[in-house]
Design a protein that fits this description.
Structural class: alpha/beta
Order of helices and strands: HEHEHEHEEHEHEHEHEEHHHH
Distance between the termini: 76 Å
Radius of gyration: 29 Å
Largest sheet: 10 strands, mixed
Strand content: 15-25%
Number of strands: 10
Shape: globular
Oligomer: single chain
Helix content: 40-55%
Length: 337
Amino acid sequence: MKLMKSTLALAIGAVSVLTLSACDDKKPAQSAENANASAQPAASQGLESKFVTIATGGASGPYNIIGTTLAETYSKVFKTNSKTQTTGASVENINLINQGKVEMAFVMSDVLSDAVNGTGNFSQKLDSVSEIAALYPNFVQIVTSGKTGIKTITDLKGKRVATGAQNSGVEVNARNLLEGFGITYNDITVDYLGYAEAADALKTGKIDAAFLTSGLPNSSLMELQQGFDLQLVSIPADGAAKIAESKPYFTPMDIPANTYGNQEPVPTVAIKNALVVQTKMSTDDVYKLTKQFFESLPELATAHQAAKAITVEGAQEGLVAPLHPGAEKYYAEVNAK
């Protein structure tokens, strides 16, 4: 009897050991499976591209301020190497996209329109650039000092005028607007100056007026306003509307009262900005970049108030270049909700 009990105890013990051993064997397999499952969402957040360089504009402009915040967000969310590149803005940015040197860029819609149609600064149509969003409007801000007597754009004839950095979006729309009012570069003395340089030249009296095309307000003009008799030069609405017939990216708008101490709204024109990418980027990458861009709007608006004017609905209006399939996928998803 004792022998039978001992044998039975040994058998039960052996079964217990085998059972525990079998359970232990299953645990690592289950943990690995769970680990893979938990890792999957993180992996799906990554990008095929290891770099997302964003071409912006001058260091003090909205492009660079908004772009820097966006690049930081992309680096954090996608664990990719994202940074901004300070440039001469729109024309240079599109050339950088075309050369494959940057993945994304901020540009003005007039320059983008020229690029996809092979006009203006572009001798041939470019299919290497695709749009992902129409952004906030850039207001053409022509500024002078009170002592010049310049009131409207037609008063610029015979004056020394800063028209923006050469081949920048500012310079392109300055030239187009002047020509629309019957003024060529032969009728003025041109200085190719960026925002900060133009503000300094106005302050020292080296120029009579300057074009600064950006979101409102422009930080260089906010600084210039301190201790300087800054006056905004108007662009008459009837003349602006006539120009818009052949150049539909120009929209007659007003610079609101009190933007720079102006008591009344000042008529001007605005051009929408655009966010563009390399056409060859994958649909999945551009979908993720577009989605994250819109989810980051609160942070972008904190960085620069011009971004407050960006909306998902507005981003689909006023497109002047082919929409990238990745952005198209995002909008289809949003519009279906």
